[in-house]
């Protein structure tokens, strides 16, 4: 039963200490808007992989490819601006620590800046992710354990103010991928309880801050 430290949006000073080793997890999963140095610290101290999607306050990571230890952009060597050793799952499906994770980062576009998308743009990105899922499912028959997003689906844990509205396309993506969990950030609870939500068989959880979660296979 893989166990993950799931983080988003708010760096917790209690995790900036060697005591974090006591969590004994198999993976760090990050849903965006955290300092990359924080993710590097967690993954390094825990000695586990880190899978993440970018949030709207993160730098632009598009166009980078990595082969071995070499980072490339537009065919030329370039310094990777993301967390050292981190696996960017945005628009991808990755297999890590016994889990299959699909990722879709970013927020609704509300100003200029990276990792922000209109509803139509995110819908196109979601369709590409769904095509990748169908191919992977056809190839090996395995489903998705976690859909890792920065923003929630529209009207399933989002807000009505323009910067915090969720993506409508995620309803279709959930129906297609049928993940066990959708884990998202972006919506700060400010101390209020945030119950899990459901869409079909998928449970939706706001993971702003940090949580330790187990994922039965």
UniProtKB/TrEMBL annotation:
Task: Write one Pfam family the protein is assigned to.
Answer: Metallophos
**InterPro entries given in the database record:** Calcineurin-like_PHP, Metallo-depent_PP-like
- Mind telling me which SUPFAM superfamilies this protein's record contains? Metallo-dependent phosphatases
Protein origin, superkingdom: Bacteria
Location of the Calcineurin-like phosphoesterase domain:
25-189
Q: Point out the coiled-coil segments of this chain.
A: none
Q: What is this protein called?
A: Metallophosphoesterase
